[in-house]
Design a protein that fits this description.
Elements: H1 2-18, E1 32-40, E2 43-46, E3 50-54, E4 58-65, E5 69-73, E6 78-82, E7 86-93, E8 98-104, E9 109-117
Parallel strand pairs: 1-4, 3-9
Antiparallel strand pairs: 1-2, 4-7, 5-6, 5-8, 8-9
Length: about 120
């Protein structure tokens, strides 16, 4: 009986020592992909035509547009309103692999293509 009690105590102490502490801090190990775009008269003036990242990365896009519009990220089914004359920064966790179009709905153009590689 004493042997069993000692084993329970030892195993409990090992479990307490080996289990990592929970944390409420976000994972900062994710890659970040940043790009800036300028849109005038419904056309991309600056910014890359294709963005490439690994699945799990965080995408940060900064868009300055001279007109109101809406950015739609196909495949992720996310939309963000854009106000003319203002710069908007949008952030998206890339949790799906594939090639996706980032489209300006009112202008009817592809702002950029997003290629997300598997991890």
């Amino acid at each position: 009986m004493i042997f069993l009690a000692v084993n329970v105590v030892v195993l409990g102490a090992l479990a307490w020592w080996l289990v990592p502490e929970p944390t409420d801090r976000p994972d900062t190990g994710a890659d970040r992909v940043r790009a800036a775009f300028e849109v005038q008269d419904g056309r991309r003036v600056t910014g890359p035509p294709v963005l490439s990242a690994r699945k799990g990365a965080v995408l940060e896009i900064q868009i300055a547009s001279d007109r109101d519009d809406e950015l739609h990220m196909h495949g992720y089914d996310r939309t963000w309103p854009l106000r003319g004359g203002e710069t908007r920064t949008v952030t998206l966790v890339l949790d799906q692999a594939g090639r996706f179009s980032a489209e300006l709905h009112h202008a009817g153009i592809e702002l950029t293509a997003l290629e997300v590689r598997p991890q």
